[in-house]
Amino acid sequence: xxxxxxxxxxxxxxxxxxxxxxxxxxxxxxxxxxxxxxxxxxxxxxxxxxxxxxxxxxxxxxxxxxxxxxxxxxxxxxxxxxxxxxxxxxxxxxxxxxxxxxxxxxxxxxxxxxxxxxxxxxxxxxxxxxxxxxxxxxxxxxxxxxxxxxxxxxxxxxxxxxxxxxxxxxxxxxxxxxxxxxxxxxxxxxxxxxxxxxxxxxxxxxxxxxxxxxxxxxxxxxxxxxxxxxxxxxxxxxxxxxxxxxxxxxxxxxxxxxxxxxxxxxxxxxxxxxxxxxxxxxxxxxxxxxxxxxxxxxxxxxxxxxxxxxxxxxxxxxxxxxxxxxxxxxxxxxx
Length: 335
Prior knowledge:
By secondary structure, the protein is an alpha+beta fold. The chain has 4 domains: 4-130, 2-Layer Sandwich (Potassium Channel Kv1.1, Chain A); 132-161, no CATH class; 172-262, Serine Threonine Protein Phosphatase 5, Tetratricopeptide repeat (Alpha Horseshoe); 273-334, no CATH class. It contains 14 helices and 13 strands. It has helices at 49-53, 57-64, 82-94, 104-114, 117-129, 136-146, 149-161, 163-166, 177-185, 195-206, 212-219, 229-238, 244-254, 258-262; strands spanning 4-8, 16-18, 26-28, 36-40, 43-47, 74-76, 96-100, 274-279, 287-293, 298-305, 314-317, 322-325, 331-334. The strands form 5 sheets. Strands 10-9-8-11 form a 4-stranded antiparallel beta sheet, with no helix packed on it. It has a 3-stranded mixed beta sheet with strand order 5-4-6. Strand 4 (36-40) and strand 5 form a beta hairpin. This is BTB domain-containing protein.
């Protein structure tokens, strides 16, 4: 069943009257009496020009911009669907916006078209709560297209926090070069070693031969101090000549990145912001291990620890830790 939410904001128009009869039309009152009729896909909505103009530059220009529509009492609105328009007119008169997973994108796009900024922001907040590994890449591109900066930032943060999982998705291969560069350049990229950054760059660039020209530009953003020798050794020894990545490695060998020679890249900040929790019955042969991403507030299951634990649970943070003994003989460690 689709999740449903009614979001409220500060009211603009307080008093509302329904039109008598079977028409799905709305009166919007209080700033002024209804003085115009809007038609959308044959449906009529009786509205106050002043009320809508106070909430939307689109309606302000429509009613008071000096155009042909300014003198009309009945105006047809094209390019929008009546279902979404009804939800938004309800929001304009009651400040209550009813959203669910089925209608939120349509309502957002209609609010964007009609320049109803408050409704637009509420839709974005709803979508932020729906962000997941499976939709964050698509949502990031969608938010960028609509200019929804907060939603874009939230989706981007999910991508940065779960980068190691995101790079295995097929959608990752469809990202433009600029987005790949933005992610690789971020200090908040949540990877312990830049092995993953190099691997992601190789995977993206080898997917399409036309991307080879971008490889050296992107690999400049990989931080060589965070590359591990075992990873490089395995990469070079196990890669076959038929592997599309082999050509990229040869390019890297022939055109060594200038930034790699400087040795001044900063450690990614998110690598110091990971928390691990060990739990479960202490007398078992293996202990459950969980990773907490502090930037996103999300938990992730890890491979269990293959040994018994003498305490009930323990917590360790990457970085400086403080050990604390609890009354139940368990240990809690804080950063």
